[in-house]
Design a protein that fits this description.
The structure is a single chain. With 491 residues, the protein is α+β, with helices and mostly antiparallel strands. The protein folds into three domains: 12-68 and 124-286, BirA Bifunctional Protein, domain 2 (2-Layer Sandwich); 303-398, Anticodon-binding domain (Rossmann fold, 3-Layer(aba) Sandwich), CATH 3.40.50; 417-489, C-terminal domain of ProRS (Translation Initiation Factor IF3, 2-Layer Sandwich). The protein is 34% helix and 28% strand. The protein has 14 helices and 27 strands. The strands form seven sheets. The protein has an eleven-stranded mixed beta sheet with strand order 3-9-10-16-13-12-11-24-27-23-22, sandwiched between helices. A hairpin with a 5-residue loop joins strand 20 and strand 21 (383-387). Helix 2 packs across helix 6. The longest helix is centred in the C-terminal third of the chain and has 26 residues, at 391-416. The chain is globular and about 80 Å long. It is found in: Cytoplasm. Residues 27-295 form the Aminoacyl-transfer RNA synthetases class-II family profile domain. Homodimer. Catalyzes the attachment of proline to tRNA(Pro) in a two-step reaction: proline is first activated by ATP to form Pro-AMP and then transferred to the acceptor end of tRNA(Pro).
Amino acid sequence: MSKKLPTRAEDYSLWYNDLVKRAGLAENSAVRGCMVIKPYGYAIWEKMQRQLDDMFKRTGHENAYFPLFVPKSLFEAEEKNAEGFAKECAVVTHYRLQTDPDRPGKLRVDPAAKLEEELVVRPTSEAIIWSTYKNWIQSYRDLPLLINQWANVVRWEMRTRLFLRTAEFLWQEGHTAHATAEEAVAETRQMLDVYAEFAEEHMALPVVKGVKTDNERFAGAEDTYCIEALMQDGKALQAGTSHFLGQNFAKAFDVQFATKDGAREYVWGTSWGVSTRLMGALVMAHSDDEGLVLPPKLAPIQVVIVPIYKTGELDALMERIRPIQQGLIARGISVKVDARDTERPGFKFAEWELKGVPVRLAVGARDLDAGTVEVARRDTKQKMTLPLADIVAAVDQLLNDIQANIYQKARTYRDQHLTRVDSYDAFKQVLDEKGGFVLAHYDGTSETEERIKEETKATVRCLALAEPDEDGICMVTGAPSPRRAYFARAY
């Protein structure tokens, strides 16, 4: 293998960027601010997508697809949403190129091909979807309407980081319409629970469920719910959001329905989404200085088998390895046999460690003759010798143990970095010396929130749903506070 990764302690940001590239997850592209997701990285995203899609469908949602382009007049119909995203929009103004008469062999925009109305490249799809829902919803019989789409979006970013912030990224966005506010709120909370379950059960990522403050709320929403996770450098990452839209988009696009008693009412809406930002969370929450540490449920390759052989022995050894491989596959375990004769075993061990494969089997003829297999687990780097006769069942159980251990390690780190403070000085000290989530009272005003952000670079991540009411005083102004908020510096 080439030189070692930078360590997390030396330079966390450099460690992350190097790891994403060297593990084959993604790389920067020829398009400034955009990334290429490489096959190994995309395989992880596909597993995320497949699991989430199953969870959406179990909760009654269907997939559809809506246009990439949004006419500016539609985009600006809901004013808060348009204002919130205006600075991030890519805009199509012309529909044709032509040869450049002043530069042979080059092209220019045809000045005669200006669009009558500019098209916004979707930064989010509420406008185009709600303009469509106007045609789909006439009566209470058409509700609820539960739609999701898997798509790409563009939010013009100049300061980018692979997976965490790029000009174009992949996501899913759910958009639902309901007859009552209560149904819409229940949908919003249900999808928050779906995201939290996915994060904890599949990503092995403990999260805090909460609601955003007015300052941090999605533009055009009445309430924004979120899941917040903690990375190994003590910074928070918003891992998913679910929005109660009230009737804002229904009124902007005149989406009304006939009630059972014949009245006309505006529908109530929600939207919710997670993106390839989850890939960044997966890397930063679990990985170490040797490479990726992937939870088995999301690892493209769960087990790698490395044959240990001398010249001329490989074919015979492969025949003896095949039953192990087939037994694991029969259990639903994804397996790769690395039989390359161009690399030594030590190189292969390091490469698969870098790529975060949860379990490695080193198999040689001498081991098989003795009825044993050497097994190494990626999360703890523990090596063990296990009986060949029980190897399939043992590996299956080991994968479950690794999944649980990765979650518990992240949970322990998170819990050790939950700090309650009562003074502004203590608040600043914890942020500078320890990091993590800081639970503190503040007066709930946008002004105080902005002041804290400006002075400490920490933001209110959420008002946690599980955090009880607790009378206190604002650490900054001394004004009354009914509960503590979760603060952190964040990505």
